Structure formats: C-alpha cells, structure tokens
Description:
Blueprint: H1 7-28, H2 33-62, H3 64-74, H4 77-88, H5 92-122, E1 125-126, H6 129-152, H7 163-188, H8 197-202, H9 213-245, H10 249-261, H11 263-274, H12 278-307, H13 318-335, E2 339-340, H14 342-358
Antiparallel strand pairs: 1-2
Helix pairs in contact: 1-2, 2-3, 2-9, 3-7, 4-5, 4-9, 4-12, 5-10, 5-11, 5-12, 5-13, 5-14, 6-7, 6-12, 6-13, 7-12, 11-12, 13-14
Amino acid sequence: MLSYFExxxxxxxxxxxxxxxxxxxxxxGGGGSVAVFVASAVGLAGLAAMVGEGTEQLGHRLGPGxxxxxxxxxxxxxxxxxxxxxxxAGLVDVVRSALVGSILANTLLVxxxxxxxxxxxxxxxxxxxxxxKMMSTLLILAVAAIAIPTIAxxxxxxxxxxATELSVIVSIVLLAVFVASVPYSIGRGPGVGTAESAESAESAxSAEHVWPLWLAIGSLFLAALGAVFVSDWFVEALRPAMSALxxxxxxxxxxxxxxAGNAVENVVGVQAMLRDKGDLxxxxxxxxxxxxxxxxxPVLVILSLVMGGAALTLVVSPxxxxxxxxxxxxxxxxxxxxxxxxLEGLALIGLYVIVAASxxxxxxxx
Length: 366
C-alpha cells in the first residue's frame, strides 16, 4: 500500500498516526491537558491532510468540477466534528467564535501570509478577476448573514427574543446558495470549493502516483473515522488547556481552534503562492472561508437544535461583526483588481493581529 504513496504523503500519514497515538497515550496515561490538546491538534491537521489526499485521488476519476464539490463536502470534516463535540460539551461561544475565526483566519492571516511570501519571492503577482468577484460577493453575503441577525435581535429591535428562529431561516438561505453552487461547480469547473481547472490539471499527480479506487476510498474513511475520535479528545482537553494557559473563551475559539482546524489548507494556499500560482492560491484560501460560511456554519446551527442543550445562533458580538465586515472589505478591495503585493499582505496580517489582540482579555474559559 505504501508503494502508492509519495514521500510527502507518507510523512503526512506518519504524522497523523503518530500524533493521534500520542494524544491517546497522553490521555490514557494522565498527561497534562495542554500536551493532549497540542498532540490532538497536530493529529487533526494530519488527518485533514489525508482527507485532502484521498479527495485529490478521487479527482482523477471525477474531474475538477465534481472534485470541488467533494472537497466542499469532506474538506471541513475535522472542523465539523470539533464543532459537534464542542456543542455537546456546552462550548457554544467557542464554536461560534471558531466559525467566525475560520473566516477571519483564511481571509486575513492566510491570504496575507500568501501575499507576503509570494510577493517577496516574485514581486507583484496577478490572478484572474472573475473568480475573485464571485468570491467577494459571497463573502459579503456571509457577513450579512451574521450582521443582520445580530442587529435585528438586539434590544429594542423587532426580532428581539427570536435569535434561534432567525438564525435557522438565514442558515436555510445559506445552504440554498451552497447547493446552487454545486451544478455551477460541476458545469463550469471553478466554483465554491474548487480551484481553477487549468491549475488543477497542472498540479495533478503523474500516472504512477494515482491510487487504486479502494485505497482512495479507504484512506478517506479511515481519516474521517480517526478525526471523529481525535476531535473528541481535542475538545475534551480544550477547556482545561485554555484555562491553564489563561486564554479567554473568545480568543480560544477565534484564534486557537480556528487555526487548528484549518492548518493544512493554510499551508497549501501559501505554498501555491510561493509557486506563483495566484489563481490556485486565491481559490484555495477564499473558498475555504466560503465553505465555512455557506456550508459548515448553517449545518451546525441546524444540528444544534436536535442535539439538545443551548442552540447555536448567528448572533455574535458587535466586535466580531465589525471584524468580519472590515476583513471582507479589505480583502475584496485588495483582490478585486487581480494583483497583489507583499505590502497588501502585510496589511491583511496587521488587521488579523489587531482583531486577535482585541479578544485576548475577554471572559476566561472556565
């Protein structure tokens, strides 16, 4: 079986298995919560990478458009499991912050790092404007989907006391937009969750590294199954680990959990920009934000209603609404002209650091 794996894939598989086993042994052996948290976070990153590898292999048989749809469905499995276990543990605010944090981390931090890395190596870089216009439009919709429930349910507003009902309606709308993107993705190739087909073709593996169908499906199944258990350990260690580190609940979700759930996608996007593949990098990074906003968030809102306990709503603090709005406007303004520079990337990173610093001194996680 290992003969089908490239060296990079073998390293990822060993990392996923090793870190997951380490998290299990630390958990059984009474290791510190911080150690379990770190090991499980690394294990989740490795398992997410294996999901990506398996999806890419299936793409050789499905084509770029259908592969993008599959990536949308499977790419956020670790984040979905983290969200479900965190909701079960009563960490509703952490889940809400993590969802917003995933959008901010991709739109500001990862996109900024990609622009800085690519700009310092290649100078100003260019990419297509058609996909950036579509992504900017959908990102604005994502901001509106959070801003409107937050404003409409505030004291004195007509929807006060109906945050759950309004959140469900908005979630259904977001899912409808996501479902509508599926035939668009299959029909045209690029879409929500896909990269430019030309870039995908250029980055396709050679024939000798194509896995058998059973190996691709088996890898996906095992990685997803592993992510279920490791996500549970991750969430179990989250509260005591963050408490020991003195982090606020909002910071834990907005920064720590969000970055842990997107670690692999972040690295791949930056690497694409370093290879001067601007279209691929923009598609990977911004589509990751859109997947969270249009699919993962509404799914968790609806599932929280059938899980019992506190319902997850789209009502967040005014600070997070402002952060989302500013992040979307800044990112859209930068990418809309189809050109980037390292200084623009630095501006994106700067805004992310400001937002992260603003929630450090919040309510401690208990």
